[in-house]
Design a protein that fits this description.
- The complex is a heterodimer of chains A (249) and B (121).
- Chain A contains eight helices and eleven strands.
- In chain A, the strands form two sheets. A nine-stranded mixed β-sheet of chain A has the order 1-3-6-7-2-8-11-9-10, sandwiched between helices. A two-stranded antiparallel sheet of chain A has the order 4-5.
- Chain A has one domain: PAC-like subunit (Rossmann fold).
- Chain A has 249 residues and is of the alpha/beta class.
- In chain A, a hairpin with a 2-residue loop joins strand 4 and strand 5.
- In chain A, helix 1 crosses helix 5 and helix 2 packs across helix 4.
- The radius of gyration of chain A is 17 Å and the shape is globular.
- Chain B is mainly β and 121 residues long.
- Chain B has one domain: Sandwich (Immunoglobulin-like).
- A four-stranded mixed β-sheet of chain B has the order 1-6-5-4, with no helix packed on it. A four-stranded antiparallel β-sheet of chain B has the order 2-3-8-7, with no helix packed on it.
- In chain B, a hairpin with a 2-residue loop joins strand 7 and strand 8.
- The termini of chain B are far apart.
- Classes of the chains: A alpha/beta (249), B mainly beta (121).
- At the A-B interface, helix 7 and helix 8 of A face loops of B.
């Protein structure tokens, strides 16, 4: 049977228990902006792409070269998954299952989906805080050991939420880092906060100064992806992230 | 929406204006609209309201030039954001207020609504 989601890697790519960062479009495009900045700053090479009939029939052209909009970058120790198009809600489950299978196969040490946590008063927050969710006791202990602030109660929704679950089912540790962000405006400030928190897990030594300085330019370029992503937010059940769970104690 | 508009649905215009991202929230007594306006300073924002619409024209401090992009627009420069929004309920333009912080414009538009107290028998 043909695969619903296909992950294609460049020939000769070697993985040595990498840390996998997933930065798919979501609220504030936090993951996408952060992942793109890391790729740029670390000069990571494109090592693969992801295709699916469930994705929109779209390709992207960069410097005259045809590319898949959902791509994989990295080196032996780091893998970054990012997308230049909104992931349709119907593709979230097949995509995350395929990704979880693949990261297991390459022997990933840790999976870190990075994204945003929408807050109504973002305009009044000068430096967005970062919260974390782990998918296992071990992952939570690691977060506590690194003095990360845990998201203790509430719903989480979107590709990162399902990725945490799918990794857990495969006995893989995953943690999600969520920066306070604007719900429907690209948020480079939140992306900078996430990158700073990532340093606790991955010593890349990335300075976010340039990201903050180029914030307005990034916001301008990210408008269309933000709009696409916001359109699928209701179907992605993003609204439940503001709801209180019935079992809240 | 016509077929052409659905295919050529752009968030930019040939007159040098970009359509800003915005969010509208319908509250009990007012409609709150925010606009994301990067590269804009407060003094360069113009807001016009009627009972049913709000329009924002915001000039950027530096023009944006995009090159080597798309089929026909090989080089295009944008100097401003412009957007008119139709409101879901009539508002009182005289009582509207606005604030601008970190590139985000917030406009509060009080609804025109006559409240009638209903006693319980």
């Amino acid at each position: 049977m043909e695969e619903v989601v296909r992950i294609a890697e460049e020939e000769g790519v070697v993985h040595k228990n990498p840390i996998v960062i997933e930065g798919l479009p979501d609220v504030g495009l936090v993951g996408t902006i952060a992942a793109s900045y890391i790729v740029e700053k670390m000069n990571y090479k494109e090592i693969g792409y992801i295709e699916s009939d469930l994705f929109p029939p779209v390709m992207v052209v960069h410097e005259g070269k045809l590319k898949n909009p959902v791509r994989i970058y990295g080196n032996e120790g780091v893998v970054i998954v990012l997308s230049e198009v909104a992931i349709p809600p119907g593709a979230v489950y097949p995509l995350t299952r395929a990704l979880a299978d693949w990261v297991k196969e390459i022997g990933a040490e840790l999976v870190i989906p990075i994204t945003g946590l929408p807050v109504g008063n973002r305009i009044d927050i000068s430096k967005p805080g970062v919260f974390a969710v782990g998918n296992s006791e071990e992952a939570v202990k690691e977060l506590e050991g690194k003095q990360m602030e845990l998201l203790e109660e509430g719903f989480i929704a979107g590709p990162y939420a399902i990725m945490l679950r799918e990794c857990g089912k495969r006995k893989m540790n995953a943690i999600s880092l969520l920066a306070q962000c604007f719900p429907v405006y690209p948020d480079p400030g939140a992306a900078a906060s996430v990158i700073e928190s990532l340093e606790k897990f991955l010593k890349l030594g990335i300075d976010v100064k340039e990201l903050l300085e180029r914030g307005e330019e990034i916001k301008l370029k990210a408008r269309d992806l933000m709009r696409q992503t916001a359109l699928s937010a209701p179907e992605m059940q993003k609204g439940v992230e503001q709801d209180m769970p019935i079992m809240y104690r | 929406m016509g077929i052409e508009r659905r295919i050529i649905r752009t968030t930019w215009r040939y007159d040098g204006c970009l359509e800003p991202l915005y969010e509208m929230e319908d509250k009990e007594d007012e409609i709150s609209v925010t606009f994301d306006l990067p590269r804009v300073r407060k003094e360069n924002v113009e807001i016009n309201t009627t009972e049913n619409t709000v329009e924002v024209i915001a000039r950027m401090s530096d023009a944006v030039c995009w090159e080597r992009w798309g089929g026909i627009q090989k080089r295009i420069t944008f100097q401003a954001f412009r957007k008119q929004i139709r409101l879901p309920e009539p508002i009182d333009p005289e009582k509207a207020s606005a604030s601008f912080k970190n590139g985000v414009l917030r406009i509060n538009l009080p609804k025109v609504r006559r409240k009638v107290f209903i006693p319980i028998e």
